[in-house]
Amino acid sequence: MGFLDHIWLGIVAVFSADPVLTIAGIPISITITMVFSGFLGGIVVGATPGLGGPFAMAVSLPILVSIFGFDVDAMLPVLGFLIGIMKGATLGGAVPAILFNTPGTPDSLLTTFDGYPMTRNGQSGKALRVAHFSSVSGDSVSDIVLIVGAPFLAVFVERFLDFPEKAALIILSLAFIAAVVGANVWKGLLAALMGLFFAYVSTGQDNYPRLSLGIEELGNGFPVISAVLGVLIIGEVFKALEDMWREMREKAEIAEIEQSGDNKLHWADIRRILPFIGISASIGTMIGALPGIGSTLAATLGYATGRKFYKGDGNFGDGLPEGVASTEAANSAVSGANLIPVLSLGIPGNVAAVFIVLATETISGFNPGPDVFRLIPNQVNPEMVIAFGLFTMMIFANVLNWTLGGVFMRATGIMVKVPKQRLLPIVLLLTLTAIYVQETNMFAIYVTLGFGFLGYLMRKLDISVLPFVIAFILANRLEESMRQAFDATGSNPWFLFQSPIAVAFILLAIGVTVFFARNQKALG
Amino acid sequence: MTLKTAKKVLVSAALGVAAVGLTAGSAAAEWKPKGPINFMIAFTAGGGADTQARLIASELEKRKGWKIIPSNVTGKGGAVLARKIKDQPNDGTTIGMAVNQTFGYNMLATKNPGYGIKDFSYITTTAGSQMGVYAKTEKGWKTWDDVVKAAKGKTLKIGVMGQKLTDIAFLLGQKHGVKFNIVVLRGGRAVLNAINAGDVDVGFGAGIQNKAVRAGTLVQFLSAEDKRVKVSPNAPTLAELGIPFRGGSKFLVFGPKGIPADAQAEIAKAIADVLNDKSTKAADFVGKAFGGPQLFTGPALEKQIEDGIKESQALLKASS
Question: Rounded distance, CA A34 to CA A24, Å?
Fold first, then answer.
């Protein structure tokens, strides 16, 4: 069975398995239905200030797992829904930014710079169309790079990396994430170390639950979903509640502006913005492929580069379609490329990827990493089929994005009117419910609240939570690969320094940390 | 749903109702659980062992009209589950599925396991592993002797899952005067992946290797069970090599100590009926994944647990 057979099986798995409804005589599979519903939900969530793709993914994952089960058949429908949310939310985030000067997601902050002035000029329709076109273009470019790049990278990794190199690679990834996320390298490292510490409770090879202080419920460690959702979502809710209490909300009425200008997207417009989309999509894709950097920086760099290249009348910030295009293409291009390290190395680079990895860990039968793209003689590699199924779903979501995305996106302007004081309790309730659905015990809820408090403290102290979450998820992989490397080299304590590749990874890890630590003032 | 399948479903439902009615009528005196049965499974949700347990549970519900609530209590080779089950009510409404190692090697090798073999009622085994030692055919080794010869030239890496197999691999090396670098991997799938990727040279597998062994891309040298494994009848057992230990394990249904004998017997019999009836999904799955049911109950099962303890003690002694 070659690659082409696997690609075909992946496509078939997405489109024909388990039809749930029939439209015009064509059976529609459950997976397709899930991608579609995730996509719609994602646009709405993205367009709601205060919510975002990660939140929707976090809450829906446990619920989806309880509906579809842990069996391998659940993998594509669940991943499909998550991918749909991921794509939809990126698009939806631009809507309140353009219409109301309120970014729906952090990365659409830069969209407000030119998007909202366009609305004030009576061109909100055009701004939304530019955002849609740029976002989808950036996303498509990024997906193509993922689909072409990930299998080759995986095969390369598999061929050249042995146990010690794999351990060194995880160390490098963690160091990189800790160094580049957030304002301070040392705080990033501290967050990563805390993540490792909590993940090491009750894990490891020994049968006795280490570090559990004799608490029976901790016999199998902290529930991953509790730790991750606690720090990411509940921590954010606590912080937002406090901010609200502090501000007591400035009662700014959201005013709608009469739209009278040219609101169509003409060929001439597309020709104008295309070079900016090209530049930003490349930047976004490159940044997405590196773990930890994320879409906000991509948007910033895309916008800054676009501004440098712009030679026409007016300036970025006055309401130029080029400005909207530069930002949206860059932040959307991150999402596809972000899955490159996930699929080829099993290392998640941003929050969205964290939930993709969590889904694959909860449901059996697909373990992202170099093994996924291995051809087994005379046999089908079921993991490779799922990987190509994943690619198929991403392409399908892009098609949805191109065709229906614009229409749905323009209809979600209303979401900005959802008041925050109603939204936050709902978020809290939904998150705790989702966790209870998966873990079915109150202990998991207490753990979630505990990690929520930790997440709140980290935000107060300006410690980035992403290194914590990614370290928590990679901790056991790190320990296992260290032990395996130690075993495989005949108990050599210097196993990390035995091969040039491993040494290079370790030196890079130190280099990245030192570089960013020395330059953080300049960068800040 | 087409009309035809709807009809089929209706008919089978009607038959099912009739069957339940018949069994309820014919055996009024048989033991019945007082409420829903909590069935805790020591394996990760979705894996082969978990699938087996859930299929058995749903078939029991269908046949006996019992309400069974399966949940997963994973971790530490079944120790987390054993500690949890120990103090549950012993009226047959709480049972668990782990492996016999949970009450053998895994317990003995832990300093403070938090439970002992006397804490439980052992109800029945369901199936067992097909544990063997294998490598890629392209390595060119045909028998275990070839592997040993190769190991004399350079240190080979051997992939295992768990501490007991580590000890056995160590004894294998000791027996032949060679040193293996023993790499502990998480589960049989990880060992298979490491073999395919060339990260380890030889590995233990509990049956996951069978398909490729049949296809000829992998070759199996040894059986780590009592008997030679079905797929490789020419591969000698460890005992035949003079290493009197077994690496395999059996799935075991158990509960807290003191479950009444009639309850134990009824649960064991119901499970046996399910697994012996080839038309059930559970039996089909157990046949495919584990080479058919292995049903030990009562004194035979108790003797197995005791033998397991003795064997594990000997293994720990021999490898320390």
Answer: 19
Instruction: Give me the residue spans of the domains in chain B.
Output: 33-128+249-319, 132-241
Please list, in sequence order, all residues whose beta carbon lies within 8 angstroms of the beta carbon of residue B28, skipping any fewer than 6 positions away.
none
Q: Do B33-128+249-319 and B132-241 come out as alike in CATH topology? A: yes
DSSP string, B53-117: HHHHHHHHHHHH---EEEEE---GGGHHHHHHHHTS-SSSSEEEEEEGGGGTHHHHTSS--S--G
> Taking CA atoms, what residue in A is nearest to B180?
A490
Q: Read off the DSSP letter of residue A216.
A: G
Integer Cα distance of A470 and B309 in angstroms: 41
Q: Report the distance separating Cα A16 and Cα B131, nearest Å.
A: 37
Closest CA to A92 of A465, A438, A411, A488: A411
- What is the Cα–Cα distance from A274 to A306, expressed in whole angstroms? 11
* Minimum CA–CA partner of B113 in chain A: A208
CA distance B228 to chain A (A): 26
- ∠ CA B57-B60-B62, nearest 5°, is 115
Count of CB atoms within 10 A of residue A210's CB? 11
Q: Does A490 touch chain B (CB under 8 A)?
A: yes
What is the tens place of the pLDDT at every residue in A426-459? 889 999 998 998 888 899 999 999 999 999 999 9
Give the architecture-level CATH label for domain B33-128+249-319.
Answer: 3-Layer(aba) Sandwich (3.40)
**Mutation site, B76, B189, B209, interface A, largest A CB count within 10 A:** B76
ipTM of the complex: 0.77
The class (CATH top level) of B132-241 is alpha beta
As given in the structure block, the two tokens for residue B148 are: 């040993």
Q: Which residues pair with B156 in a beta bridge?
A: B180
User: What are A8-28's pLDDT values in tens digits?
Assistant: 999 999 998 878 888 878 888
- Encode B17-54: b = buried (16+ Cβ within 10 Å), e = exposed: eeeeeeeeeeeeeebebeeebbbbbbbbbbbbbbbbbb
State which amino acid sits at residue A454.
Answer: L
The sign of the torsion formed by the CA atoms of A262, A266, A268, A269 equals positive
Tokens for A155, please give them: 């095969």
Question: Is A73's Cβ below 8 Å from some Cβ in B?
Answer: no
User: Which residues does residue B39 pair with via DSSP β-bridges, in sequence order?
Assistant: B70, B95
pLDDT tens over chain B, length 320 residues: 444 555 555 555 444 444 444 444 444 468 899 999 999 999 877 777 888 999 999 999 999 999 999 988 887 888 889 999 999 999 999 999 999 999 999 999 888 888 999 999 999 999 998 899 999 999 999 999 999 999 999 999 999 988 899 999 999 999 999 999 999 998 888 898 889 888 999 999 988 888 889 888 899 999 999 899 989 999 999 999 999 999 999 999 999 999 999 999 999 999 999 999 999 999 998 987 888 899 999 999 999 999 999 999 999 999 88
Q: What is the mean pLDDT of residues A354-373?
A: 86
